[in-house]
Amino acid sequence: MNAMTIPMEYRQASVDFDRFITDARDISGLQTTNQAYTMVQAVLQTFRRRLDVEDAILFADVLPPVLRAIFIAEWDLEEPTSPFSGRTAMTLEVQALRGDHNISPDTAIADVAAALRKNVDEAKLDRVLAHLPAGAADYWRA
Asked: At the top level of its lineage, which domain of life is listed (predicted)?
């Protein structure tokens, strides 16, 4: 019986996440990767609130393993889906996560989008976003 080799995306998951979170920190001008983590988690959760489960799974499949885990962690499936609203309203939602410890800039969504695009297959990301509800592609525009 032949054993399946461990896919490289899983072998490299920590290294790839470190590169991504450093990019997010640097692009946003935050001081630490801990600050960047809160911003990234909030941006992902804000986006997730606007998708049904099927669309969220399509999106999760283009994310690297650690981001995929952050995206689906602590998901309240009973929470109603929110509409895509203006960037300002969604940014305020991002900034509300752990408000006392969240210093996400007003550019948080675009900053995380830029870091994400730098660390995933952009063509694959854009193909998936084209199948998601109106507003999804704009959300991930850097």
From this structure: Bacteria
Using the 8-state DSSP alphabet, how is residue 101 labeled? G
CA–CA separation, 40 vs 16, rounded Å? 15
Binned average pLDDT, 10 residues per bin, the chain of 142 residues: 83 95 98 97 98 97 98 95 95 93 95 98 97 97 90
Residue that is written with structure tokens 């203006």 in the block: 86
CB burial of 45-65 (b: ≥16 within 10 Å; e: otherwise) equals: bbbbbbbeeebbebbbebbbb
| Domains, the chain | 14-139 (1.10.490.110)
Q: Which residue has the tokens 């995933």?
A: 120
Token duo for residue 138: 């704009």
Exposed e or buried b for every residue in 21-43, given b needs 16+ CB within 10 A? Answer: bebbbebbebeebebbbbbbbbb
Q: What are the structure tokens assigned to 9, written together?
A: 């995306």
